Amino acid sequence: MNEARRPRRHLSGSGPGIGPPAVADMVGQKRLYWVFTGLLAALMAGSASRQVFDYAWAVESFARLGYPAWLIHPLSVAKLLGVAAVVTGVSPFLKNLAYAGFFYHLSLALSFHVAVGDGPDMMVGAAAGLALLAGSFHLDRGCRSVSENS
To answer: Domain range for residue 52?
Structure first.
């Protein structure tokens, strides 16, 4: 019963010289946010550029999924504007609008791939995009709430 209690270590691994656990957690959360957001931005920008630069593939893909070909360029522009809004974070309203647009786009893409009977190899992009979107959105909310409370 006379055991000396060992000091508790915080789960973030913060120790002497690193700073308070809340600061260390915030730094880790921001890094993780940028990993998710960077991968999401790369996925969306890559998708938009492929639709523009490989137009024949895009027309065939859109037709197979039931989309009209005229939708390719406006969708590509919207994706690039959404990436800019999420990465720069200039306006919280535009950032939320971009997150919503990405959610609708990726959800519909995944559901259309399922509806037309595509295999898992065709669905992985939309499913990965939804996972990255969820991570980026959740971590963005966490970073915002901590910075607003400080």
So the answer is: 24-149
pLDDT in tens, 49-101: 999 999 999 999 889 888 899 999 999 999 999 999 999 999 999 999 999 99
Quote the pLDDT of residue 149: 55
* Domain assignment of residue 12, yes or no: no
Decide if 35 is inside a domain: yes
As a whole number of angstroms, the distance between CA 111 and CA 117 comes to 10
- Position 11 in a domain: no
Alpha-carbon distance 75 to 109, whole Å? 12
The domain total for the chain is: 1
Cα dist. 130→80, 86, 139 in Å? 17, 15, 14
CA distance 45 to 51: 10
Residue 40, domain member (yes or no):
yes
| pLDDT value of residue 22 | 62
Q: To which residue do tokens 């999924």 refer?
A: 65
Torsion of CA 95, 96, 101, 107, to 10 degrees: 120
